[in-house]
């Protein structure tokens, strides 16, 4: 069995321990599996690939003995969100309509990390089709926060965040449509990274809103996160939206500058007050400035108009004809469509499909969808303009602590409004990262948004912040 302290060490240390014979991959995987077993009550995992992971570890251990030169992700034990395809494994996006679906192929990012000797340990729970901010909209039940199991883990990549938070893996792959990596990362107090749109192939990722979705990474180890991103990024013949302008790798700049927008820190909110204090405390590391942003009140309406419109289109493929669940005992094609989709989709998914169908309807298309697209362009231009002067925009990830699992909002829009700080980076297509901070004994997370194709700056800044906090 691997020394318990080793599984929490950086990937570079784990790799050295394996290659030096201090431990084996099989022992390492067994240690992670033990932690998964001890944290099952949190409901972070949907499927655990125990036998496959052990078998792969044994094969790699023997190959190393035989002189094999391992890949860059040797020692990376990876959890995968349940909306990313793994060949021969179930993938359901936490939905009933895909309950019996097994993927016949690997998502491109999965192929790339497996080629570098990463080991997949299981798939993680999430909100159905990535629609939610709490990981409670799942056919598998809610994900519980590892710090307090009466609280939510955040969403939609709640299981991915908890898998890192509790030490059941050292890297987690998730997806981020409007903050689905960064928000649960903040609630679980771990780093969460969303690449810029088009940096990583979406081939093999079950779509929610195609012009917003992006695969990303959660890990305590920022260096491992950067290494994983370097492997994931780049063109893919199966995804024409991947940018031809590859992200640059120039994260060695010493004098980064940060801008914050005062309107994003409402007075009287203790959590965002602490967040602002944490940002200001970084003035020894970064040049600090302020800027105006005229579009704050439009972020949530614009985001939900566009994402629900895309969701209504993307989810039309789930009709009981080609794959997934089909309602039994039907007498006509129309009845099969209606009953399959009624029984197959959860409440939140049906609500968003209906909203999207409404904003795309003939009478409202120009009033809602077309106008939202114009606002999205103006938002992106405003972010670009700020980032011409500064390296990063700093803002909160969330407006408060995770709420109770049983909490029922008084306002139907309350949960949607909780995404106000994270949707900005998805609307504009910029890379962003949630970075845990602690200032004057208060834990919070700050979010940095970087220039397009400058993901490397985010990693460099995060490492600076982590190093400063460790002193």
Short description:
The chain is of the alpha/beta class and 471 residues long.
Walk me through what this model shows:
With 471 residues, this protein is of the alpha/beta class. The chain has a single domain, classed as Amidase signature (AS) enzymes, CATH 3.90.1300. The protein is built from 15 helices and 13 strands. The strands form two sheets. The protein has an eleven-stranded mixed sheet, with helices on both faces. It has a two-stranded antiparallel ribbon with strand order 4-5. Strand 2, helix 4 and strand 3 form a beta-alpha-beta unit. The chain starts with 10 loop residues before the first helix and ends with a helix. 52% of the residues are buried.
Number of strands: 13
**Assigned CATH class:** Alpha Beta
How are the strands ordered across the major sheet?
1-3-2-6-8-7-12-13-11-9-10
Number of domains: 1
The best one-word shape is: globular
The largest sheet, given as strand count, sense and whether it forms a barrel, is: 11 strands, mixed
Mean pLDDT: 95
Find the CATH topology.
Amidase signature (AS) enzymes
Helix percentage:
25-40%
Number of helices: 15
Low-confidence stretches: none
* CATH homologous superfamily grouping: Amidase signature (AS) domain
Kindly estimate the percentage of residues that lie in beta strands according to DSSP.
Answer: 5-15%
Structural class: alpha/beta
């Amino acid at each position: 069995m691997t020394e318990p302290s080793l599984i929490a060490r950086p990937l570079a240390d784990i790799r050295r321990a394996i290659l030096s014979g201090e431990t084996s991959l099989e022992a390492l995987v067994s240690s992670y599996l033990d932690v998964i077993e001890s944290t099952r009550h949190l409901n972070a995992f949907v499927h655990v690939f125990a036998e496959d992971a052990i078998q792969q570890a044994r094969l790699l251990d023997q190959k190393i003995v035989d002189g094999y030169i391992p890949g860059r992700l040797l020692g990376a034990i990876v959890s995968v969100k349940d909306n990313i395809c793994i060949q021969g494994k179930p993938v359901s996006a936490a939905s009933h309509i895909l309950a019996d679906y097994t993927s016949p192929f690997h998502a491109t990012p999965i192929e790339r990390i497996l080629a570098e000797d990463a080991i997949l340990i299981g798939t993680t729970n999430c909100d159905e089709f990535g629609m939610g901010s709490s990981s409670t909209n799942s056919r598998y039940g809610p994900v519980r926060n590892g710090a307090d199991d009466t609280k939510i883990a955040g969403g939609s990549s709640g299981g991915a965040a908890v898998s890192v938070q509790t030490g059941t893996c050292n890297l987690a792959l998730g997806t981020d449509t409007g903050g689905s990596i960064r928000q649960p990362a903040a609630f679980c107090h771990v780093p969460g990274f969303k690449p810029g749109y088009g940096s990583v192939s979406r081939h093999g990722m079950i779509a929610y809103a195609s012009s917003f979705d992006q695969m990303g990474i959660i890990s305590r180890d920022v260096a491992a996160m950067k290494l994983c991103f370097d492997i994931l990024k780049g063109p893919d013949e199966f995804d024409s939206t991947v940018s031809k302008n590859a992200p640059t790798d120039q994260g060695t700049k010493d004098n980064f500058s940060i801008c914050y927008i005062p309107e994003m820190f409402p007075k009287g909110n203790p959590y965002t007050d602490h967040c602002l204090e944490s940002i200001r405390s970084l003035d020894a590391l970064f040049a600090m400035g302020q800027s105006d942003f005229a579009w704050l009140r439009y972020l949530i309406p614009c985001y939900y108009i566009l994402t629900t419109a895309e969701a209504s289109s993307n989810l039309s493929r789930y009709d009981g004809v080609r794959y997934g669940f089909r309602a039994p005992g039907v007498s006509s094609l129309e009845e099969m469509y209606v009953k399959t989709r009624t029984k197959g989709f959860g409440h939140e998914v049906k609500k968003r499909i209906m909203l999207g169908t409404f904003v795309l309807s003939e009478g409202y298309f120009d009033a809602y969808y077309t106008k939202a697209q114009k606002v999205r362009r103006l938002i992106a231009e405003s972010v670009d303009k700020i980032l011409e002067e500064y390296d990063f925009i700093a803002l909160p990830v969330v407006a408060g602590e995770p709420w109770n699992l049983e909490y029922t909002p008084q306002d139907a829009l309350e949960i949607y409004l909780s995404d106000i700080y994270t949707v900005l980076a998805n609307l504009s297509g910029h890379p962003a990262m949630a970075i845990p901070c602690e200032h004057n004994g208060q834990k919070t997370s700050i979010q940095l948004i970087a220039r397009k194709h400058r993901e490397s700056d985010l990693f460099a800044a995060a490492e600076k912040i982590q190093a400063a906090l460790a002193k």
